[in-house]
Amino acid sequence: MKPYIGQVMTHKKEGIIRVIENLSAISDENAASTEEMSVAIEEQTASMEEIASSSETLAKLAEEMQLNLSKFKY
Asked: Would you call 57 helix, strand, or coil by DSSP?
């Protein structure tokens, strides 16, 4: 009867090891995904800042154009 208990314990231990290895792999995948999301968010933030800056420049150019056009009005 003792060998049977030993086999069961070994089988259970191997199952627990597999579960821990799977959880570790999932954790690694989550960490990688989080890092990728962080990089994507940083890129999106930089793009938004660039768009905001371009919008400000465009607004200034439009204002200058409006001033220049007002010179031609009667």
From this structure: helix
Secondary structure tally for the chain: helices H, strands E: 1, 0
C-alpha span between 32 and 25 (Å, rounded): 11
Query: ∠ CA 54-37-52 to the nearest 5 degrees?
Result: 10
Residue that is written with structure tokens 């259970």 in the block: 12
pLDDT tens figures, 10-57: 999 999 999 999 999 999 999 999 999 999 999 999 999 999 999 999
What phi, psi does 73 have (nearest 5°)? -80, 150
